Amino acid sequence: MQKKILSIILSLLTLLSFSQSKEITLEGIWENYNFYHKSYRGLNSMNDGEFYTQIKNTDEGQEIIKYSFKNGERTVRIFKSSDFKIKRINSYSLSDDDRLILLATETESIYRYSKKAIYYVFNIQNNKLKKLSENKIKYPTFSPDGSKVAYVYENNLYIKDITNGKETQITNDGKKNHIINGASDWVYEEEFKLVRGFEWSSDSRTIAYYKFDESHVKEFSMGKFNGNLYPSQEVFKYPKAGEDNSTVNIFLYNLDKKEKTLIYTEEDYEYIPRIKWSKDPHILTMIGLNRHQNKLDFIVVNSKDGSNNILFSEEDRYYIDIHDNLTFLPNNFFIWTSEKKGYNHIFLKGLDGSEEQITSGSWEVTSFKGLDSDKMQIFFTSTEDGSINRSLYVLDLESGKRTKLSTQKGTNSAKFSKGLKYYINTFSDANTPPVFTLHKADGTLIKTIEDNLEFKNKLEEYNLSKKEFLTIYTDNADLNTWVIKPPDFDRNKKYPLFMFLYGGPGSQKVLNKYEGSNFYWYQMLAQKGYIVACVDNRGTGGKGSEFKKMTYKELGKYETIDQIDAAKYFSNLDYIDKDRIGIQGWSYGGYMSSLAITKGADVFKLAVAIAPVTNWRYYDNIYTERYMQTPQENPSGYDENSPINHVEKLKGKYLLIHGTADDNVHVQNTYEMTSALVRANKQFDLFVYPDKNHGIYGKNTRYHLYKKITNFIQENL
User: Fold this and answer.
1) What pLDDT, on the 0 to 100 scale, is given for residue 517?
2) What is the mean pLDDT of the segment spanning 115-124?
3) Does residue 619 lie within any of the structural domains?
4) 292-324 pLDDT, tens per residue?
5) Rounded CA gap, 703 and 29, in Å?
6) Is residue 368 part of a domain?
7) How many Å apart are CA 582 and CA 499, to the nearest integer?
8) pLDDT value at 511 more than 70
9) Collapsed DSSP state (helix, strand, coil) of residue 687
10) What is the model's pLDDT at position 20?
C-alpha cells in the first residue's frame, strides 16, 4: 500500500513539474529576448601578448578594460566613454605599439560588411582624444609605426599624420558607381569578403591599394519608401551571372617619394581577391584568379619597381575557395592552406618555391590559428573528431607530434594572444551554452571566464528537448542530420515533420554547437507537437572537396535529391506522418525549399521560402559562376534546377517571403517566381516586407516574420 501511495505521489510530482515548465513563445524569443546567453566579444590582444582589452558596458556608458592573460584578472581601465561624452563605442582597434586606440561611433551600415563611422584617436599615455575626421569615413587603419592612419572617404584614399594633423589625399578620381579607391565594390565585398582595399607595408612607407573601375558594370536599383510620399532610389553596380565585372588594378603609393606605381601582370586576371605584404617591406603578394575561379596564381611583387612573378599556381577541376590562411614568417617562409589533396590542409611554403605539407588525413583543417616560430609549433582547429565537431590542436613541426588541446567534443574556437602564449577558448555543443576559458598555449586551464551557468539554470525552467544527431544512409550519400522531438514524445503516435535547411556549397547546419534564437523556435515547434529535423545534403562542407564540389555546374539537383531521400527516410518511420512533411529555408535554403515543394511535390506538403534565389541568372556572378560557370556556357545547369521552371508541379502549401530592399538576393527573384506561379495557375501565399534587406530585421520585424511562419505551419501542417 505504501509503495502504491509513493508511486502516486511521484507521478503527481512529475506531472506537476511538467505542468509548471514554461512554454517557449515567440514573444519570449524575439520580444523579451529570454534566450540570450552571455558572450565574450570585443577582445583585442595587446602587442606584448601578455594583456588584452575588452569593452564593458556600465551604467555610465562604456569602458575599455585591460586584463592580464596570465591570470584573467582586470588590471586597469584605459578608456571611459562618459569622460568624453561619447554615447556608444561601436568598435575599436589598437596601434601596434599599444599606445593609441582608434574608436568608432555613430556607425552606419552600408552593405553586409561595409560601414562608415565617426572615428576618434585616443592616446592612452596622455588620456587625450582627437577626432580623426569631421566626416563619416571608412576603414581607418593605423600604420605599423602608429604615426599615421589611412582611410577611405567618398571613394578616395587618404592618409592622416597623427603627429602633426596633416592630411594627404592619395587619389582624386573616386566617384560613386564609377571609381572606387581603397575599398571594394559590392560583389567583392559580398563574395570575397574583401572590404578594406588597402594594406600598409611593415615599414609604414608604402601602401598597396585597389582601384575598381565599375563604370561599365550594369546597375541595379531599389526603391525605398521609408514612410515618404515618393520613393528614393538606391542605385548600385551589381554584376549578375554572365555580366561584366569591374576592372581591378593594384597600385603602390610610396609615402617618401609621393609616387604611385601600377602593378602590371602578364596574365589578365578577372579577379584579384587578396593582397598581403610579407615581413619584408619590399615584397607584396597578390592572388590572381580566372573567371571560372578554378586557376589561382600566387604572385610576388617587388615594391621597388613593381616587377612581379608567379611563385606557384593551383588548379582544380571544379573551383578554388578563397581564404585568409596566409601567414608570413620572418624567414621568407609562409603558411598556406589548400584542398588540392582532397581535404583542406596546411602547407609550409617558401618564397624560393619550396613546399612541405604539414597536416594530412581524411579530415579538414577548418581554421589556422598561428605559428610559434620560436617553438616551431602550429595551432589549428579541425574535424578530426568528426565532421560535425571542431577541435583545437597543436602540431610540433620538429617531431611531427600532434596534440589535441581541447578537452570536450563539440565546437571549440580559440582566440590566441599575440605571440601565441595564451588563448581564450569558446566551447559549446548542441545542448550546452558557450563556456569561455583562458588557457596557456599548452592547453593548461588558467581560468573559467564565463560558464553561462546562470543562463543554463534558467533553461531548466523550460521543458526542452535534446538535439539528437544521426546519419541518414541513402543510395547516394551518407547525410549528417539533427532531430528535435516533442518533450512528451511517444513512439506510438504519428507526428508531423518540419525540416529546416540551408544546403549551399561548403556550408554546414548540422554542427555540434549551441545555436541562438532559431534553436528555441525549433524547440517551440517541438513543444507544439512537431518533430524538427535538419539534413546537410551533398555539396555541404566538412567532408572533403569531392563531397563539397560534386554539385558543380548543377546547383540544386543533387541537393534536392538528398532532401527528398531524407524526407522519405523519415516518412518510413512509424512515428512520422508521411502526409505532413514540411520544409523551410532562407536564401540558398529558400531556393532549396522551393525546389523541394516543386520537384518533391509528392513528398513535401508545405514549404516556406524566405528571400530565395529562384533562378541563378538573377544572382551575382562571382558566387554563381564559381559553381555554375556562366549562363552562356551552362544554360541547362541554370534552367533545369530553377524553381521557376518547375512551378507546374506544385501541389502543397507554399509561402514566399522577401524584403523589397534586399541588395543581395533581389526581390526580383520572388517577383519572377510569383509571375511563374500565376501563369501556371497555382495558388500560394506571398508576404513582402517593405524596405527590408536580406536579413529582414528591425523593430518588430523578426517577431512578425516568425509569427507569420508559425501560423502558416500550424494552419497547414
Assistant:
1) 84
2) 96
3) yes
4) 999 999 999 999 999 999 999 999 999 999 999
5) 8
6) no
7) 6
8) yes
9) strand
10) 53
Specify the CATH number for the domain of residue 603: 3.40.50.1820
CA distance 266 to 261: 16
Cβ neighbours of 368 (radius 10 Å): 23
Q: Which three cell numbers stand for residue 152?
A: 577611405
Which residues face 31 on adjacent strands? none
Length of the chain: 717
| Cα–Cα distance for residue pair 257/255, rounded to 1 Å | 6
CA distance 675 to 679: 6
Distance CA 397, CA 476 (A): 39
- Assigned domain for 364 exists: no
Residues 247, 245: Cα–Cα separation, whole Å: 6
**pLDDT, tens digit (0-9, with 9 covering 90-100), for 337-384:** 999 999 999 999 999 999 999 999 999 999 999 999 889 999 999 999
Domain span at 591: 462-716
pLDDT tens for each residue of 682-707: 999 999 999 999 999 988 999 999 99
User: Rounded mean pLDDT of the chain?
Assistant: 94
Specify the 3-state DSSP secondary structure of 646. Answer: helix
pLDDT at 42: 74
Q: How far apart are CA 251 and CA 269, in angstroms?
A: 15
Enter the DSSP assignment of 78: E
On whether the CB atoms of residues 158 and 152 are closer than 8 A, the answer is yes
**Residue 2 confidence (pLDDT) above 80:** no
Element (H, E) at 600: none
Return the H-helix or E-strand segment holding 334.
strand 333-338
- Sign of the alpha-carbon torsion through 262, 264, 269, 272: negative
Number of domains in the chain: 1
Is 10's pLDDT higher than 70? Answer: no
Is 53's pLDDT higher than 50? yes
What span, in angstroms and rounded, lies between the C-alpha atoms of 148 and 59? 34
Separation of alpha carbons 706 and 703, rounded Å: 5
How far, rounded to the nearest angstrom, does the alpha carbon of residue 589 sit from its chain's CA centroid?
A: 15
Please count the CA atoms within 13 angstroms of the CA of 98 that sit on its side-chain side.
13
Q: Distance between CA 593 and CA 585 in Å, rounded?
A: 6
Q: What is the pLDDT averaged over residues 601-615?
A: 98
8 A C-beta contact, residue 162 and residue 148: yes
Instruction: Tell the residue number behind the cell numbers 545542448, with chain if given.
Output: 431
Q: Which of 163, 146, 250 is nearest to 208 (CA)?
A: 250
Per-residue pLDDT of 222-242, as tens digits, reads 999 989 999 999 999 999 999
b/e 580-602 (16+ beta carbons within 10 angstroms → b): bbbbbbbbbbbbbbbbbbbbbbe
Name the grid cell of 33.
529576448
Q: Would 618 be classed as within a structural domain? A: yes
What's the pTM value of the predicted model, to 2 decimals?
Answer: 0.94
> CB of 693 within 8 A of CB of 642?
no
Place of cell 578563397: 322
pLDDT > 90 in the chain, percent:
92
The three-point CA angle 521-451-64 to 5° equals 100
Q: Is 449 left (phi over 0), alpha (psi -120 to 50) or beta?
A: alpha
* CA contacts within 13 A on the Cβ side of 147: 9
**Listed residue (650, 668, 623) closest to 506, CA to CA:** 623
Give the residue carrying C-alpha cell 551554452: 433
Q: Is the pLDDT of residue 9 over 50?
A: no
Q: How many CB atoms lie within 10 A of CB 18?
A: 11
**What values do phi and psi take at 15, rounded to 5?**
-65, -40
CA distances from 118 to 62, 556, 708 (A): 17, 43, 38
Instruction: Show the cell assigned to 90.
Output: 561601436
